[in-house]
Write a structure and sequence with these properties.
This protein is of the alpha+beta class. The protein is built from eleven helices and 14 strands. It binds adenosine-5'-triphosphate and magnesium ion. Adenosine-5'-triphosphate binds at residues 243, 247-248, 251, 290, 292, 294-295, 299, 303, 308-311, 314-320, 342.
Length: 355
């Protein structure tokens, strides 16, 4: 099955192995490049001598060692004068059973495209927020004037002209509905958090889906019954998963269409809160997978932006709303897509003891 050493050398991702006292015992060529030093120089150096003392890289390494399981941390800044500034996702895993060695892989944001994308999603949500306020003021109010005027005209118009006034009224109504849908984006996040049983949310959504838009697809529910409650807003979570399952149903083939909804508890997923030192743990994973054609490569970066749609009657607001609501919850969403296998993964915080 090939030479593992050669594989490690070929990997573009920096791989670093430290022993039980944080001394470097292995670096692959990508790590040499990242740390700007040769393996020979690095061998035996202590991690603490090359990375700032307070770096999450060090605490993650300790935690992996202490708990004996793998952990990831997203959005970690590693900057030193020598190696420059980097924003990375760190994955750490224990190597072997007893001696405390830990394997660390560092994915830079350019390669860790998934996180890159979820951060972009937050911006997308923010830009809709401003837009929503603008739309309500500058579009909806004048529009009701336009609608009223058309109604007045309608009264004295010939039947031919009435078709036109009807058209004005109908289109005005359509635009109003669209603006109403955008209202949810408006600034004040009215999020009423409580202990939410995510399976109750999903059961409800699946029932709605099966009786409506997802009639033609098989929905497989794959739940971990031991999951703790989410710290969230039930109705908003319903909206999130309705949108994701609706997209899945629209993407799934007419024949043998399938959506798999999975819940799981994931240890060690943490997200750095931008511009602070704190990190939130996002152990709850809900994924929605469909077997449709997948998301075209060139569209993937933009699907969370508002008004991006490939559907005839689509508004392109579904995923923008999802990104906004997940963001308000302090969670994260990302997507992997290939033909017959598109997965949206939502990571959410659980209720903490004090709450
Ligand atoms: N599961 C999926 N498989 C393939 N493409 C998807 C999937 N989910 C989303 N997309 C793509 O992303 C686009 C944006 O989705 P989004 O939910 O934001 O809007 P929409 O579904 O087009 O419209 P609306 O949600 O308002 O009905 C879709 O038009 C589609 O091209
Ligand atoms: Mg949609």
């Amino acid at each position: 099955m090939g030479d593992p050493g050669a594989v490690l050398s070929a990997l573009a991702v920096p791989v670093i192995v430290v022993d039980g006292s944080d001394d470097l015992i292995f670096v692959n060529p990508a790590a040499e490049q990242f740390l700007r030093a040769s393996a020979a120089t690095l061998s035996g150096t202590n991690l603490q001598d090359i990375i700032p003392q307070d770096s999450p890289l060090l605490s993650l390494t300790q935690n992996v060692r202490r708990h004996g399981n793998s952990m990831s941390e997203y959005g970690v800044e590693i900057s030193t004068p020598r190696i420059g500034e980097h924003l990375v996702t760190i994955d750490g895993a224990p190597l072997g059973e007893t001696d405390g060695s830990v394997v660390l892989t560092l994915q830079e944001y350019t390669t860790a495209g998934r996180l890159d994308r979820s951060l972009v999603h937050r911006d997308a949500a923010r830009s809709v927020t401003a837009m929503a306020a603008l739309m309500a003021h500058e579009v909806k109010n004048p529009l009701s004037g336009v609608r009223g005027a058309a109604q007045l005209l309608e009264q004295n118009a010939s039947s031919e002209d009435q078709q036109l006034t009807r058209l004005i009224i109908e289109e005005a109504d359509r635009i109003c509905t669209l603006v109403d849908r955008m209202d949810v984006f408006s600034e004040t996040p009215v999020i009423e958090r409580g202990h939410v049983n995510i399976h109750e949310v999903l059961d409800h959504v699946v029932k709605v889906a099966k009786n409506g838009f997802a009639r033609h697809v098989e929905i497989v529910e794959n739940y971990d019954p031991s999951l703790p409650p989410v710290f969230g807003d039930r109705d908003q979570l319903v909206q999130v998963f309705l949108n994701l399952i609706k997209n899945g149903a629209e993407a799934a083939p007419e024949v043998d269409g399938e959506i798999v909804v999975t819940t799981a508890f994931q240890h060690g997923i943490r997200l750095a809160v931008p511009a602070t030192d704190s990190r939130i743990s996002l152990p709850l994973l809900v994924s929605v997978q469909d077997n449709g054609e997948g998301i075209p490569e060139d569209l993937r970066r933009h699907i969370f932006d508002p008004f991006v749609t490939t559907k005839a009657g689509g508004s392109g607001l579904g995923l923008a709303l999802v990104a906004k609501l997940i963001g308000d919850h302090g969670g994260m969403i990302d997507v992997d897509s290939e033909t017959r296998r598109t997965i949206f993964r939502v990571m959410l915080p659980v209720v903490r003891e004090a709450e």
